[in-house]
């Protein structure tokens, strides 16, 4: 299937949106958003520490469980090769210092021709970092300054995806990410078969 939904954990992400995309394409749930979309095809978090802390919450997850390739990943978590490089990785994930960025690259590598973003606030909507409570220490949160650091990296990714014939639609309820086409999720779903 060529339509992939990437479900991030921005403050505007909600169970209603996760349920709305169920069965409408392939799904990548990022981090704790796996709790809203346990039916996703892929549960992705770049960070091995996240997997070690939250992995038991997702013990029943039946899809692929993926992270960036690193030592000390828990059993059952697939380490994906990566490169710390700008833009779109054509044969390997480029990091963009953000799991949401990496999930988009993963969808491309899996053959996506259309990628729909949900929960990609890329800002502190309502003063919150995520739709869920903050992560405990030593896990990181999307702390002040992080959105501003990460957002510009998406510009090159957007350009490279367009050059490779991939349409990316940002259907997030709230977002500061301006480099992708914006369409409300209900309208995106109405356009899909």
Commentary on this structure:
This protein is an alpha/beta fold and 193 residues long. The protein has a single domain, classed as sialyltransferase cstii, chain A (Alpha-Beta Complex). Helix content is 25%, strand content 19%. An 8-stranded parallel sheet has the order 5-4-3-2-1-8-9-10, with helices on both faces. Strands 6-7 form a two-stranded parallel sheet. Strand 1, helix 1 and strand 2 form a beta-alpha-beta unit. The longest helix is centred in the middle third of the chain and has 11 residues. 44% of the residues are buried.
Count of strand segments = 10
Order of strands across the widest beta sheet? 5-4-3-2-1-8-9-10
Helicity range: 10-25%
Mean pLDDT: 92
- Termini distance? 12 Å
The total of helices stands at 6
CATH architecture call: Alpha-Beta Complex
Question: What portion of residues belong to β-strands?
Answer: 15-25%
Shape: globular
Structural class comes to: alpha/beta
**H/E element order:** EHEEHEEEEHEHHEEH
Residue runs with pLDDT of under 50 for 5 or more positions? none
